[in-house]
Design a protein that fits this description.
globular; Arc Repressor Mutant, subunit A; alpha+beta
Amino acid sequence: MFSEQSCTRLLRDENPELVKLIDPTVNQVSNYFTESGKDEFCGSATELADLMKAHSGVVISPAVLSQKLLCGHAQFCSLGYECSFYRTHEGKKIKIVRVHSGEENTNA
């Protein structure tokens, strides 16, 4: 059975720095923003899932997308994004803003 903790420990033995695995869904959202050149999004999880599907063919359920962004919030922020969740009379919304690219973050 896969365990992130045991996998991290194995990778850490080869590399003394702590290795943190990025959730694949979080990574797909980051790739969407990088490839599309967009710096921000404000809308529902359904709208984001539809944009990702139209852009790269990646199919993600809106419920899964929202859950993964909530659970992987720290990971997503570490990739250079600000992400917030809020409710309106129209439903749940997600606001994502690219603060800086991952490349800028590693050179700092």
